[in-house]
Amino acid sequence: MQKIFSLLCALIVISPFLGGCEPPGQLRSNERFGPSAVINRSTPVLLEKTSAIDYERDIKPILDSRCAVCHGCYDAPCQLNLTAFPGVERGANKARVYDGTRLLAANLTRLFDDGRSVGDWRSKGFSPVLNERKQTLFVNTENSVLARMLMLKHLNPLPKTDRLPDSFDFSLDRDSQQCPTAEEFDRFAGEHALWGMPYGLPGLKKNEEDALLRWLKAGSPYKPPEPPGGVFQAHIQQWEAFFNGDSLKQRLMSRYIFEHLFLANLYFDDVAPLSYFQLVRSKTPPGVPIELIATRRPYDDPGVARVYYRLRPLPGTVLVKTHLPYALNSRRMEKYRTWFLDNISTVNFLPSYRPEVASNPFETFKDIPVNSRYRFLLDEAQFIVMGFMKGPVCRGQVALNVIDDRFWVFFVAPEKKLMPEAEAFLAQESNNLRLPSEEGSEIDPLSSWLKYSALQNKYLESRSARLTRLFKEGNGINLDLIWNGDGVNSNAALTVFRNFDSASVVKGLIGESPKTAWVVDYTLLERMHYLLVAGYDVYGNIGHQLASRLYMDFMRMEAEFHFLGFLPQQARVEERDYWYRGASDSVKNYIFGNRYNVDLQTAIRYAGNKPKEEFFGMLKQRLSPVLDRRHEIAGDADQFVAEQLARLVKTPGLSAYWMPETAFLLVENDDAAEKSKLIGIYTLIHDDAHSNISQPFRESNNRLPEEDRLSIAKGIIGAYPNVFLRAPKSRLRELVIEMQHLNSESDYQALLSKFGVRRTHPDFWQISDSMHREYGATDPVEAGLLDYNRYENR
């Protein structure tokens, strides 16, 4: 009878319309462990002999250093986010957030925004990794996916080999992603005995494992941290009062700031210890608990008559891949007052939240002077550009193959010849500056491309005519048009590194002269933000994702056009053709063709036959007072190390080809007593060469390995290391020589055997901890947890 009942239930499960029975696995769990129910972790049943366990003190540091380095943010395997206890309690979900093929937009599952309770997450398809049945020492481990993953690793450590077998799948979109529930775990363990956690990395130390299992047995007790008090509370009150003034002018200012800072990790730079906050929209005013307004996009209709802008403590651990630090201080507030309150003449009504208006910043914020908006963006230009890389598109090869692997970014100077007419010009062109994000998260990419490319072409025609009028006779295109940071701001020059499906932005001009460069003006910077950050939905359908990529093509070429405009006319065409080798004439003609053609000579005098190199030299000289040099190896205190690493820049392309996208090199002391003290950490970045980047697919068809290069930087750049390399100072020359003579995969594997830290290295976690400590000590504001999802197995 029981067998018949179980069979009936198994059949019924396949039909969502015929409920009434539970799956067999659920039935067995009910019999063994009792019925499932959400547990109140703040008042656990089992406190006997466990009252000394403190989540923040004893458990969170282990989860951070051993688990969150793979399980954080959108790209966490199984959506299991272990950066904060609410993520542990939420559990796992088999659905993927990053999916470039879905036809319909996915439901939102942002950890701190889209679910208010564990019950909410269960209704959204998340399964628990903590026990939610009978609370006993035995059941709390036997029915916990987290506990059983740890024990599986303990019973089945990694094989003692250099390279792990192919049964381990480390691809980001691996089909082998399992996400077993507690009811499925026996099958999972039987089929994948080596897949315990941490996956594909050494197991935890005994004291770490014991602490986690003790906590899990106790019912995973959790006490929320105390809210920030003292001086933090005073700063919060001051800023919330500033952001929530009653005048229309103040409310418009706060909306503009929020739509640009909604991803920021805000901090008060005059308060210790360093703590981060987020600017959020709330239904409630300052002084009462925040009632979050969670929408797909920061400019979506909030659904209330009055929005309040509030500061909430950053709810999770800082991850490098999403970390966008932004300082709040008295100087910043005074700048805001000047730009947005003193310079706005009048605001008669607040703009609409209708998508066609809210997605277009040139229409929404037309009452804020253009120069004020541009000054706001320039003041922290690295933060704004970094949002394109670390925001929603921080992962995705189709999203990021729209940019070259390394390039420099400069900015048009505010209040120069281009700016006085900007108000009238943007008012005239606001319709042509509309973005595909106004269509929402489900877009037909073909119709979208046709519509918005036509608008872009109209804008370019008008812009070309305007530039021709402003700079006729070649009297205006000169170095003064490049923003010099007002002599004090290091945001004036940036370097962008793209690493296949992720990217980083740093201040300064890193490496040798790049193939391409951008010169960005206000309209470009604003549109990029509203296309790739404020308007981009990582949960959107394939049409939304593809339309965003295609439109970004237009803007990249526009930025490249601005740069080429400073070169002599003939050199512009030659350089364009070099950048777009193999591309169609229609693509080439987009720059200095029938769409965007400004027939003007530059006023800059060039002496030789390499004007691009000369121009880079002029820019370096102009920006020298503000150039950030902290990542330059030339200024390293250890001259020998600097000389050896500088040689790597000359590595031949076909040798550089065998190197991974990003390697972190730890140069160690030779003195055994000082070995734990690193001479330094350096980032080796593989710059993949392409004939052109005009196609969203089949990127490999445009690869030019013989032109690959290595960029070397002091400190840590990037969130996703592919490998750690270690070398004592005395063997650094040997490492450099071997890297310069790589000719095959076997050569690279031999290099790793001498200097690499593979996934199986017994000291992997010790080295990881050392890396994070050094990062936090040398760059505390930028530092966070690295991500090991891209760590190679070679």
UniProtKB/TrEMBL annotation:
Listed GO MF terms: isomerase activity
Keyword Nucleotidyltransferase: no
Domain of life: Bacteria
Record protein name field: Fatty acid cis/trans isomerase
InterPro entries xref list: Fatty_acid_cis-trans_isomerase (IPR010706)
Signal peptide: 1-20
Pfam short name (any one): CTI
PROSITE patterns, alphabetized: PROKAR_LIPOPROTEIN (PS51257)
Record bears the keyword Transmembrane: no
Keyword list, A-Z: Isomerase, Signal
